[in-house]
Amino acid sequence: MMKLTDQGSLVLLDGSKGVIWNSNSSRFGVKPVVQLLDSGNLVVKDANNTENFLWESFDYPGDTLLAGMKL
Length: 71
Known about the structure:
- The structure is a single chain.
- By secondary structure, the chain is an all-beta fold.
- The chain has a single domain (2-59), classed as Orthogonal Prism (Agglutinin, subunit A), CATH 2.90.10.10.
- Helices cover 0% and strands 41% of the residues.
- The protein has strands at residues 2-4, 10-13, 19-22, 32-36, 42-46, 49-56.
- The strands form 2 sheets. The chain has a 3-stranded antiparallel β-sheet, with no helix packed on it.
- The mean pLDDT is 87.
- Keywords: Disulfide bond, Glycoprotein, Kinase, Serine/threonine-protein kinase, Signal, Transferase.
């Protein structure tokens, strides 16, 4: 299960609700929200400041590159 914490970190939990992955974002939002953009970028942003991302998946490329990802 994927969860967004009150501080704005994304976490993946196993069946026992143990954390198996954490975004470890150093930036926090007052009212964090998660959004999957049309580009495929999964972002965490503050609902009060939608221009600045607190965390974005494009900063962490995997085995598939999409336009706009950082290398």
